[in-house]
Please model this.
Amino acid sequence: MTANELTKDIIEFIQMNKGQAERINNIARKVGNRFVKSNMTKGTADIHCTIKGRSVKIEVKIGKDKQSDAQKLYQQSIESAGGIYYIANDFDSFYEWYNLNFK
Model:
C-alpha cells in the first residue's frame, strides 16, 4: 500500500464513522516561473481530523519513511495542547489504535 492509498483509506474510514477528516498538503505551489512556499505550519500532519470531539492529527509513514525534526516538534506541540497525534504505518494498526481509543 502506498502512502496516498493509506491516507485515503484512513480519511474514508474516519468519515464513515461520523468523524471529520481532511488531507493536508504542505507543498510549494508554482506561481508563474517560481515556487511559493505553503503557509501551513512546518511539520504539520498529513491528516487533520476530529473524532468524537477530539482533535487528532495523523502522520502517514510507510516503509523506511521517518519523522523529520519539524514533524517531531509539531507532534510535541499538538500533544502538549491536549490533542492526539498518531503515526500510521498501515491500516491494520491504525484500525486497532482507533478501536482502542474511540470505540
